[in-house]
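Review this:
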Amino acid sequence: MYEIIVFILVLSFLVLIHEMGHYLLARKNKINIKEFGLGYPPRLVKLFTYQGTVFSLNAIPFGGFVQLEGENGPEDHTDRGANKKNNQEWGPFFTKSISARLQTLLAGVFSNFIFGIIAFSIIFTQTGIPHDLGEQARIYELRDDSPAASAGLKENTNIVSFYSQLDQQWVIVNNIKEVQDYVDAHLGEEVIVKTTDTCELTDCPDSYQEFTVYLRKDSERAESEGAMGVVFTSVVYEKNPWYLAIIKGSLYGFKEAMALGLLILQALGNLVVDLVNGRSVAMDVAGPVGIVHQAQTYGFFDGGFLNILSFAALLSINLGVMNLLPIPALDGGRAVFILLEKVITKEKIEKVANWANYLGFCILILLMIFVSVNDVRNLF
């Protein structure tokens, strides 16, 4: 239940950020805003009115919405003569320039990306800059009272080889899996473990140390501990003074947000290719239920504020990318219709766009229902 509540709160916050982007750019472009709703209708209460915009609290406690005057064209506005208004004055959405309407539509996507960048920047400022260790068997932690701790092994060193009376030779290990395979083959034995001296980020010295370690059998240790009592890591974090941490954390946060956006686009491209080729993709697509389950599996709800913030950043970038897709009813699809006004008359585009957006919305709702049912089925 805790995970579901956190997910709803996080997603609602991200939707409100998205809608706030629309609201701010609509005001910047002097577009009349009918309502800014917290949650979805039916309306419970009108909170207040600010410069002609009704701020409301609605019955469905999830996300929010911004309703622009004339956002669906002239039929959404009673004054048909509004088409002729100077778009430098306050007026309906459809009377504004292509640039103003595009800015307002895409501001939501921009807001989600900005939040994702800020969230990642905060995370990496706090944790440090991660560096991938590749194939190194880096010791991250030694369990208390474990054979490794008793033998004197040290954290932040690499295990490089083993020697046992059974083998009568040094066996070189190049990665964590090879360490685990060697240990599994020598349970109940006393072996010599060779490690590097203390490493500096990804670099380790050429000097080594040797330790005699007993490899516990399954019956001799707690279920949560290994034979040696060593916890490995594949990533180390570069710590910096606070002033450098802010700069480096922000730059790395921007880089990670952009890389994640490209990764999502690549995944969507692969999804389209699979659909075209008739391959099954149902297991790869997750809706709200599936997202909560995956987040729970990867421990996003268990590690405190930074883990939840990381989850929010992932969702925010995902929400931004999805809304940017050129699909009717999404911001990207509506932006495409606005751009087509450069080659097709505005009146014709508006008629087609309204029907396409309505159809796209219905398809998206059906798709969400299908994916949610599939998520529940996969859980059981």
